[in-house]
Amino acid sequence: MPIVDSRLERNIKIYHGPMKLFYTYEVFYAQKYGGISRYYYELIRRIPPGIADVKVLAGLYINEYIKALPMVRGMKVPQLRYTGIIRKLANRIFRKIILRNTGSYSND
Prior knowledge:
Layout: H1 6-11, E1 19-23, H2 35-45, E2 52-61, E3 72-76, H3 84-102
Parallel strand pairs: 1-2, 2-3
């Protein structure tokens, strides 16, 4: 049996419950179909609710997959030419506001 430093043991908080997973916009704001966004979508939708509580902070997104997920916070926008940088900047601001107001994760 390994020896555990009692100071370390006092500082460890044991959390009983589902993991909390928080995804941000980077994968979903620029890609409408396929690739890594499809991979993340499949991962997110297959996680059982009892295993993890999943939130997706998508901001302004064009991705067709995640609009079907109930845990998405964001808004689907049309894909227009030369607007990728605008979506990216708006999403950075949106992320900072959300994380500042709720911490790194929120259950609401």
